[in-house]
Amino acid sequence: MRRSVAAAVLVAVLLVVAGSVYIVGPQLTKGTGGSSGPTTSVSVSSGLSTSAQSATSGGASAQDWTTYHADNSRTGYLPVSNFTTVTAGWTSPALDGDIYGEPLVFRGDVFVATENNSVYALDGTTGSILWQRNLGPPVVANTLPCGDIGPVTGITGTPVIDPSTGTIYVVTFSEMHHTMWGLNVSTGSVVLQRAADPPGFNDSTEQQRTALTLANGVVYFGYGGLAGDCGIYTGWVVGLTENGTGPILYYRLPSENGGGIWATSGFAVDQSGNLYVATGNTASTTTYDFGEAVLKLSPKLSMEQYFAPTNWVIMNQDDADIDSVGPAIVGPNLLFQIGKPGVGFLLNSSQLGGIGGQAFESNVCDEAFGGTAFVNPDVFVPCINGLFKLDVTIANDTFSTALVVSGLDAGPPIVTGGVVWTVDTNTATLYGLSAATGWQAHTFSLGSVVHFTTPAAGDGQVFVATRNKVVSFVLGA
């Protein structure tokens, strides 16, 4: 669970230290706005490379956002033209439960899922509900041994859309069982229903929080323990084919207890279809059992390689999950990984190296949660003590801190047109920060949000889920 962080005094102070730029407190130089707030007018040049990013799953169009952070590299980047204004757009009607997943954008519509096991399609222009499909009663939270989602828990992980078939996939939790569903994006009609519990699985202590990942004709997702680490659980990766045929694919972490796989951003996938998965703490302090690791799994979910920090025993003892953030691809054969301890690692994906096998490591921040964003050569890291920009030097596999925007508990960021969007979960405020300088260009009050709230973008808008609504912000020339 994310720690509570005392609100910082929002005073803009610019310091230059050892070549890095630090901004103490978000620069509140513009007025705030809600669903009917004012337009903020700022011209921001990107200062970022426009190198091609990896394609979105299934070949979505440039303005679609069909998987968590837009693509299977988890870049969180939409290469739109620079914009000069941001205007609060529409607010959807109240939906029937809390929204933990990132909104998705496809064919001009917006798709979200709720903890009440409902999937919604919203009109991308007006926010009105096009269709709603409920997929069964959610589990009442107080019937579980622990956890931090309530009063009910249903769909938590971000869905995924296959643009080639027009199908959205979700995993529900109902009557103490998990089920994967495929729905037609145009009508909400059910096209696939399949049990998602692997053999030997304990539903009452396992939670499906990771974003779903579509690759190799398979929908992949992870399971981990409930907040509080109660009972017996372990990390699982499950894969189910899109067409519903064939046996369930699964990988079970070989631990007696622990090692949950729960990062909001889910998994990264390379060009060969291999998955990169992070794991949490296990109960072991003697024999290494693949907790606190980054695993490389084949498309059929056999483990090929792994990496773990040398201090994995201490991390296990301290509940210092390295998988509070999912892996991200930041270069050819190069991964970035960070977790609760705030230590960043660069890993060679062709040779993860086992224990102590990192290509580079450095302290970054206090604690990190959710998912990173990447626009070559910059990684944007969400931490409880600010948003951190790291410059990656691929030639020698290193990174350095280039920018810190402190004074906020940063949620998972995305980047559009030279602006980084992040939600301060302490204050439920959406910030648009210059990706080049950290300057606060835009700010909007959201009212109320859940942990790990992640914006999305598409069709000239940014979309954010509040607790049970979706709001839009229009990017103008």
Average per-residue pLDDT, rounded, comes to 88
Number of strands: 40
Based on the structure given, which CATH architecture is correct?
Answer: 8 Propeller
Terminal CA distance reads 40 Å
* CATH class descriptor name: Mainly Beta
- Largest beta sheet: what is the strand line-up? 1-2-33-32-31-30
Structural category? mainly beta
Sequence stretches where pLDDT stays below 50 over 5 or more residues? 1-59
Major sheet summary line: 6 strands, mixed
Tell me the Rg in angstroms. Answer: 20 Å
Describe this structure in words.
By secondary structure, this protein is mainly β. It has a single domain, classed as Methanol Dehydrogenase, Chain A. Strands 1-2-33-32-31-30 form a six-stranded mixed β-sheet, with no helix packed on it. The chain has a five-stranded antiparallel β-sheet with strand order 3-5-40-39-38, with no helix packed on it. Strand 32 and strand 33 form a beta hairpin. The longest helix is centred in the middle third of the chain and has 7 residues. The chain starts with 12 loop residues before the first strand and ends with a strand. The N terminus is likely disordered.
Please tag this protein with its features.
five-stranded antiparallel β-sheet; Methanol Dehydrogenase, Chain A; six-stranded mixed β-sheet; globular; mainly beta; disordered N terminus; 477 residues
